[in-house]
Amino acid sequence: MLRLDARRNREKILLAARLAFLESGPDASLEEIARRASVGIATLYRRFPTREALIREVVVLTKQELLAEARQAQADQPRAWDALAQFLRRVAIRRLGSLLPVLGGRVEPDQVFYDVRDALIATVRDLIERAQADGDLRSDVGFGDVQVMTNLLSRGCRRHPDR
Predict the structure, then answer these.
(1) pTM of the complete model
(2) For residues 40-60, b (16+ Cβ closer than 10 Å) or e, as one string?
(3) What DSSP state is assigned to residue 161?
């Protein structure tokens, strides 16, 4: 178990890494991530000895947060359609969906990765199937469609410079 200050540093590094990866992709500077987290580069390497280890942890954490948002939406909303809408809103606000396409291919999956991924897929599929059964969602919408939507919504709308 990590000391409180070590746990805080780890959380700051993961948040800074997420932002840096969103802005610059998987090759974002580790020195910049450490600077943003207000830690030394040695602290970053103590927690995450390789870039791949840091990316993996950011991906798993993001999937865990997506799962938590989906489960929270299920708990908050009696109607599946409303739960799905809440999930999509929260994912867009937190920009959770745009990170996985950028980093996903750089992760060597392990059991934790698969467990979180499978739970996320099952939870979102349940929302989709219940919304379809209620007649609120077209029958041809699947998990992949929702996944693409989370990615697009998480990117946000950019205003055209001429308008």
Answers:
(1) 0.85
(2) eeebbeebbeeeeebbbbbbb
(3) T
91, 154 Cβ separation under 8 angstroms: yes
The four Cα atoms 138, 99, 18, 128 give a dihedral, to 10 degrees, of: 20
Say how far apart CA 92 and CA 71 lie, in whole Å. Answer: 16
Question: Distance between CA atoms of 103 and 25, rounded to whole angstroms?
Answer: 7
84-130 pLDDT per residue, tens: 999 999 998 888 887 777 777 778 888 998 999 999 999 999 999 99
Evaluate if residue 162 carries a pLDDT over 60: no
Q: Name the burial class of residue 139, with classes exposed (0-12), middle (13-18) and buried (19+) by CB atoms within 10 angstroms of its CB.
A: exposed
In whole angstroms, what is the distance from residue 92 CA to residue 146 CA? 12
